[in-house]
Every structure is written in structure tokens, then in C-alpha cells.
Write a structure and sequence with these properties.
Strands 2-3-6-1-7 form a five-stranded parallel sheet, with helices on both faces. The protein has a two-stranded antiparallel sheet with strand order 4-5. It has two domains: 164 residues, Rossmann fold; 85 residues, Helicase, Ruva Protein, domain 3 (Orthogonal Bundle), CATH 1.10.8.60. Helix 4 packs parallel to helix 5. The chain has 13 helices and seven strands. By secondary structure, it is of the alpha/beta class. The longest helix is centred in the middle third of the chain and has 17 residues. The relative contact order is 0.16. Helix content is 48%, strand content 13%. InterPro entries: AAA+_ATPase, AAA_22, ExeA_AAA_ATPase_DNA-bind, P-loop_NTPase. Pfam families: AAA_22. GO terms for molecular function: ATP hydrolysis activity. It comes from Yoonia ponticola.
Length: 294
């Protein structure tokens, strides 16, 4: 069996497709209570014209999913630009920003020229009845100078109306960075914020059942004891849940069983094939130690 394509387990379990692919798929979008609140905070920030909205969360908790949901919201009065992993000086930042908005950015242009082009674009969008929202993903990697430049962006306005709003998204350390004394003026512009936590065990179970249902499952393939193990190992992080559940279905398929018991999860951890988002040794050792103590 191991020599056959892995997607054959879909037929084994009566599924139309793999339910735990690591490739983002809007069709599998799962709204936990915390994800719904985080998205509401994003909408609140836009509707109230907050200068800066801050969203943080651990790697794999679904921040990018929220961003893409916002991009797909098709707001007629808002133009959205997404900038991920921006690097470089102030002029390079402006090039990233202009390109995210579909504008050309001359590589030979100086900062003043690029800023003038950016400001002209904001004014033209405002005249057309649209505000511009810039989303900066992985913002914990931005330098202090770039973050300070973002604060300066929020000074662009037309009377009492804001032409530009920022959504800054990143890992938990981003919140600590923004709260540093030398970035106090930036923190004062944050009018809406939300930290996206990991899911609890009940949420993990609902997440797994949801994805299986979307993929065509008519029964509970994962036993409750297996879900408890998945929660312990993944700490409720969706990306890790997907990795481990996909492996569990492969293992159950090779064992020719129709459900995933706790023993399958134990075997995966014993074999060391779950990498745990780059923390495989730490996760596996902790899990084995805790299981052995029972």
C-alpha cells in the first residue's frame, strides 16, 4: 500500500478530497469564536477609520487566512494593498507599497519622488470615494525605522478624513516591539488590536470535524482520544493540526482501518515523522515523556 499515491486514502475514507492540505483553501475556512472576533476587529478598524489595526498570533494560527478573507470581501469603498516581508530602506518600502496597489515604482526614483507618487495616488482614490488600506504581514520583521515610517504614513489626510489606514499583522513579539518606549507614538496610533490565540481542545475537535465534513466525510473518522492527542501535540495551532491529521489518515489507510484511534497518533510520534513546525525534537520528546508518565 505504501507504494500507492497518498491521495488514495480519500477513497478509503469516502472523502472527495484531502481534508488537511497545507495549501490555503477558502472552501475549508473554519471560523472559531476567536477567528470570528479577530475578523470583526479587522472590520471594526476599517469601519471606524482606525489609523492602525494590530493583529498578532503564533505561527500557523490563521492570521494569513484572515487577511485573505479580508482581501476577498470586495468592498467598493476600500482599496487594499498587501505587503508581506517588506525589506529595505524607506524608499524600498514605498516601492513595495506602490506595487501592492498596482502602481509602477521606478527603481531609480528617490524617496521624495516615490512619496509624492504615493500621496498623489491616495488623493486620487479619495476623490473617487475610496480609502486605501495597507496590510503589512510578518511585520515583526520590520525595522524600527520602517515602523516609524508607517507611523508617518498615517499623517497623510484630507481635513478630518483619513486617506490611509494600516493593518499590521505579525507574530506575538510584534506587540512587544510596538510597545517599546521609542515607538510610543506608533502605539498611540493603534486604535484596534487583537491577539489570535491557539484553539482549545474543544475547538480542535470542531476544526477537525469541520474539515472532514467539507471533504465529504459522513462519520467521525478521528476518535475522541486521537483528538485529545492531536491537541496535546499541536497546542491548538491549525497549521500543525493539518500536518498531523494528514499523517494520521495516511497511517490509518496503511493499517486498513476506518477510524483514527489514539494509537495511530502515538505511532506517528514514536516514528518521528511529524516535524511539528520545525520543533520536532522538542515536541516529540515532551509528548513521549508525558505519555510515559501516565
Amino acid at each position: 500500500m505504501m507504494g500507492q499515491p497518498l491521495d488514495l486514502y480519500t477513497a478509503h475514507f469516502g472523502l472527495r478530497e484531502r481534508p488537511f492540505s497545507l495549501v490555503p483553501d477558502p472552501g475549508f475556512l473554519f471560523w472559531s469564536d476567536t477567528h470570528a472576533r479577530a475578523f470583526s476587529m479587522l472590520e471594526y478598524g476599517i469601519l471606524t477609520r482606525a489609523p492602525i489595526t494590530l493583529i498578532t498570533g503564533e505561527v500557523g494560527t490563521g492570521k494569513t487566512t484572515l487577511i485573505h478573507q479580508l482581501l476577498d470581501s470586495n468592498r467598493e469603498d476600500v482599496t487594499i494593498g498587501l505587503i508581506a516581508n517588506a525589506q529595505g530602506d524607506r524608499a524600498e518600502l514605498l516601492r513595495w507599497v506602490l506595487m501592492s496597489l498596482g502602481q509602477t515604482a521606478d527603481h531609480n526614483a528617490h524617496y521624495v519622488d516615490l512619496f509624492g507618487q504615493f500621496q498623489t495616488y491616495l488623493v486620487s482614490e479619495y476623490a473617487a470615494g475610496r480609502r486605501v488600506v495597507l496590510i503589512f504581514d510578518e511585520a515583526q520583521n520590520l525595522t524600527r525605522d520602517v515602523l516609524e515610517e508607517l507611523r508617518m504614513f498615517t499623517n497623510i489626510n484630507a481635513g478630518k478624513d483619513e486617506l490611509l489606514q494600516l493593518i499590521i499583522v505579525g507574530q506575538p513579539e510584534l506587540r512587544d516591539i510596538v510597545l517599546r518606549p521609542d515607538l510610543k507614538q506608533l502605539a498611540q496610533r493603534v486604535a484596534a488590536s487583537f491577539h489570535l490565540p491557539e484553539m482549545d481542545q474543544e475547538g480542535v475537535g470542531a476544526y477537525i470535524r469541520h474539515r472532514l465534513h467539507v471533504a465529504g466525510a459522513t462519520t467521525n473518522i478521528f476518535e475522541s482520544s486521537a483528538i485529545a492527542g492531536i491537541y496535546e501535540i499541536t497546542r491548538g495551532i491549525p497549521r500543525l493540526i493539518n500536518q498531523l491529521c494528514d499523517l494520521a489518515l495516511v497511517y490509518a489507510f496503511t493499517m486498513d482501518v476506518q477510524t483514527v484511534p489514539r494509537s495511530v497518533i502515538d505511532q506517528i510520534m514514536k516514528d518521528g515523522v511529524f516535524f511539528g513546525g520545525g520543533q520536532e525534537h522538542q515536541v516529540t520528546a515532551s509528548f513521549v515523556r508525558n505519555r510515559g508518565a501516565r
